[in-house]
């Protein structure tokens, strides 16, 4: 709402300063302002505007990794640390937005300083409650929204000029669709905006009470609550006191069991499910059977809110509300116990996911772990900082499939390294963590580190009692050899591991071995069909157990071998069948990216060059999203380079790059449609919507009036003069109208209004 002056200031400051920091109190709207500025500045930065969200990050060592993920950095070609990011951004004219840095100021400042020193065309926009305090930084304090002066009596028309009132009306309309500012409630709206001092978060929290209170009751209770605020920090800014007062008020409205649950729920980061709340928060005096009703009460009181529409109900709380609860939790001396229970719950979730990986639950488990990424970070931090080494080692290793399939390789390596740095137990949990860390290093192309970690795992395993874990060591050793192109070494290792897994009936290991064994046999032989039997066995075994990921991987590998054998139709069919995982697992990109690549190779072989280049572009987009690439796998890198060279030679560099870029621009659904050669539903055409009543489209009375003046052909200045408002206010109304109607020009507004008359 509004913020035109601040947006202009951000644009101007970024032209003269390479680092601009938006400071201000929590809840004042720094994040929304930064995002809006980024959208408006896209054309000024041809190499992109990138947003890295740090609010849910707690570990300063992961700041660079998180930024790398936001940038789509390929971990195999660029290390996700400050020097690696500096190399990646060195020649790019880009804007990097770092959001919510106040709890990671030192790490953020170090990273920004390194990037700005090495990247002359980079600009950085930061939001933080405090400045980074490095050379060249320009700061802009984000003020609360504009409110009427204390002695100013407003009419409904006057209120439209104030940003706080516009926000209040917008949010009130969402709660009560028939809400409008009238002569009867105008004074109350004015007083409420003044009492809340224009703080956006405070306004949203207060207006949410309209579900149970009138405006007058909200104002009365808020005013009464401020009178009680006599023991707060006198040197704190008044707007922070009022926000604290508002949350204090919500706290006072809660019964004691609700308050206790609120404080315990603050341990969660990024949201939580009911089952997790029951396991983590239900200990005396809260009984497990009381949690559901207490959560329902906290939802009703707008302390927490439900998000998403998945099969499991999920809840979140605003960050400032969560922080408030955390302070209360610490004051109640319950934080250590709640943190331990939180860690135990998510460690057990990770273990369950690992044990049940090769099962019909696999797709749901992958999605659930992805949604719990922020909680996993908090729990892992507790594990490596406060739990026994065996707990931390098992926790980090149990997430092996999550790290691999989702492309979170550097983060997985980070937690494994920290767990391995704890006092080393002579236990299988350490041997397992060593071999998982070795496997990640292999995929990232760090062969020396992978070999060193595996050597330590083998030495430790030799001193331990028998375990199914022992069979995984030759699998990783074989993969290290296969990635390097040494198939002669890899094959007997895979065969050894396969025999061990079958003897112990370890389904996940058997699937892994069959997939890589078939791929290695086919790649190492003059007859690629030598690998067909193992890959078919992997596919069939996966199907019989309801497993989807290894089935998809086996089909992709089969498509590569068929392509090498000249069976283009068979290769295409296998790759397309592999892509069905995209309809089962939301946001799965690893095997989808592989299969798009394989279909690109097939298309190039049959001289469908435009299709091939587009598919390579679509695959590249997937790999960038995962922060990974094919470069660490020698044979695949060779195939990719050969196909790319052929396409460039036949199409020419310019035509190839144009087709490649069209593939990069495809949505996931469009890429899948292109791959399986299915005509996708057309995107909605731009243009006027079907005639509808202005009120049905969310236009306020003043916006309807402005729309009519736009249709008459008046300029913003003329509209401002006609309505006796500031020109900036008129401009804001016009922007809102265009946004709500989905138009891009004033002429569209005029044509649409004419069609309704």
Quick take:
With about 750 residues, this protein is mainly alpha-helical. It contains 39 helices and 8 strands.
What strand order characterises the main sheet?
2-3-4-1-5
Q: What would the average pLDDT be, to the nearest integer?
A: 86
**Strand fraction:** under 5%
Number of helices: 39
Instruction: Examine the secondary-structure arrangement and name the CATH architecture of the largest domain.
Output: 3-Layer(aba) Sandwich
> What class do helices, strands and sheet pairing give?
mainly alpha
Identify the CATH class of the largest domain: Alpha Beta
Integer count of domains: 6
Helix content: 55-70%
CATH topology name of the largest domain: Rossmann fold
Question: How would a crystallographer describe the biggest sheet?
Answer: 5 strands, parallel
Rg of Cα set: 29 Å
Apparent shape? globular
The poorly predicted ranges are 224-242, 680-696
Task: Output the CATH homologous superfamily of the largest domain.
Answer: P-loop containing nucleotide triphosphate hydrolases
Protein name: HTH luxR-type domain-containing protein
Domain HTH luxR-type: 692-757
GO molecular function, one term: ATP hydrolysis activity
InterPro entries: AAA_22, HTH_77, P-loop_NTPase, Sig_transdc_resp-reg_C-effctor, TPR-like_helical_dom_sf, Tscrpt_reg_LuxR_C, WH-like_DNA-bd_sf
């Amino acid at each position: 709402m509004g913020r035109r002056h601040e947006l202009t200031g951000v644009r101007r400051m970024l032209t003269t300063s390479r680092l601009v920091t938006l400071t201000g109190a929590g809840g004042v709207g720094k994040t929304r302002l930064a995002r809006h500025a980024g959208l408006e500045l896209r054309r000024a930065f041809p190499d992109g505007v990138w947003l890295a969200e740090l609010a849910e990050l707690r570990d300063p060592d992961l700041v660079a990794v998180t930024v790398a993920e936001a940038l789509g950095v390929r971990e195999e070609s660029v290390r996700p640390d400050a020097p690696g990011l500096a190399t990646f951004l060195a020649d790019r004219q880009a804007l990097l937005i770092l959001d919510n840095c106040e709890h990671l100021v030192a790490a953020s400042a170090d990273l920004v300083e390194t990037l700005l020193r090495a990247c002359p065309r980079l600009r950085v926009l930061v939001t933080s409650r405090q400045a980074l305090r490095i050379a060249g930084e320009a700061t802009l304090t984000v003020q609360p929204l504009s409110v009427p002066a204390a002695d100013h009596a407003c009419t409904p028309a006057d209120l439209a000029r104030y940003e706080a009132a516009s926000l209040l009306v917008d949010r009130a309309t969402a709660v009560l669709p028939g809400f409008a500012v009238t002569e009867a409630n105008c004074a109350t709206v004015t007083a409420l905006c003044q009492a809340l001092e224009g703080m956006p978060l405070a306004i949203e929290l207060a207006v949410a009470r309209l579900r149970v209170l009138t405006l007058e009751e909200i104002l009365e209770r808020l005013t009464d609550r401020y009178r009680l605020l006599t023991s707060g920090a006198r040197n704190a800014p008044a707007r922070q006191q009022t926000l604290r007062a508002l949350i204090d008020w919500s706290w006072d409205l809660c019964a004691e069991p609700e308050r206790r649950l609120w404080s315990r729920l603050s341990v969660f980061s990024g949201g939580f499910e009911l089952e997790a709340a029951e396991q983590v928060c239900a200990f005396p005096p809260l009984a497990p059977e009381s949690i559901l009703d207490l959560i329902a009460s906290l939802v009703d009181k707008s302390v927490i809110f439900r998000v998403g529409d998945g099969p499991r109900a999920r809840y979140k709380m605003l960050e400032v509300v969560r922080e408030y609860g955390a302070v209360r939790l610490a004051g109640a001396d319950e934080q250590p116990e709640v943190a331990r229970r939180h860690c135990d719950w998510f460690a057990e979730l990770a273990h369950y996911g690992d044990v049940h990986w090769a099962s019909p639950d696999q797709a749901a488990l992958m999605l659930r772990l992805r949604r719990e990424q922020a909680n996993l970070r908090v729990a892992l931090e507790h594990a490596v900082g406060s739990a026994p080494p065996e707990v931390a080692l098992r926790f980090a290793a149990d997430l092996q499939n999550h790290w691999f399939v989702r492309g979170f390789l550097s983060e997985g390596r980070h937690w494994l390294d920290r767990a391995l740095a704890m006092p080393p137990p002579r236990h299988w949990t350490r041997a397992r963590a060593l071999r998982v860390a070795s496997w990640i290093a292999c995929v990232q192309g760090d062969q020396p580190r992978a070999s060193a970690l595996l050597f330590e795992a083998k030495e430790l395993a030799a001193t331990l009692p028998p375990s199914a874990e022992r069979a995984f060591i030759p699998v990783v050793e074989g993969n290290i050899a296969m990635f390097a192109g040494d198939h002669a070494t890899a094959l007997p290792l895979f065969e050894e591991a396969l025999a061990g897994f079958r003897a112990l009936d370890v389904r996940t290991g058997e699937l892994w071995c069959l997939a890589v064994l078939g791929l290695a046999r086919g790649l190492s032989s003059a007859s690629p069909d030598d690998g067909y039997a193992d890959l078919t066995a992997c596919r069939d075994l996966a199907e019989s157990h309801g497993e989807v990921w290894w089935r998809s991987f086996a089909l992709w590998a089969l498509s590569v071998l068929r392509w090498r054998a000249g069976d283009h139709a068979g290769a295409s069919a296998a790759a397309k069948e592999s892509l069905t995982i995209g309809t089962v697992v939301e946001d799965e990109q690893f095997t989808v990216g592989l299969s798009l690549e394989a279909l690109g190779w097939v298309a190039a072989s049959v001289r469908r060059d435009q299709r091939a280049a587009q598919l390579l572009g679509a695959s590249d987009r997937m790999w960038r999203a995962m922060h990974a690439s094919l470069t660490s796998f020698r044979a695949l890198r060779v195939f990719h380079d050969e196909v790319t060279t052929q396409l460039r030679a036949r199409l020419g560099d310019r035509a190839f790059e144009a087709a490649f870029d069209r593939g990069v621009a495809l949505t996931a659904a469009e890429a899948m449609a292109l791959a399986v050669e299915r005509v996708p539903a057309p995107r909605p055409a731009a243009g006027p919507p079907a005639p509808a009543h202005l009120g049905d489209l969310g236009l306020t009375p003043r916006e309807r009036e402005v729309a009519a003046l736009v249709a008459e052909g008046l300029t913003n200045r003329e509209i401002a003069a006609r309505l006796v408002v500031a020109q900036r206010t008129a401009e804001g109304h016009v922007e809102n109208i265009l946004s709500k109607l989905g138009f891009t020009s004033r002429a569209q507004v005029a044509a649409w209004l004419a069609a309704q008359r």
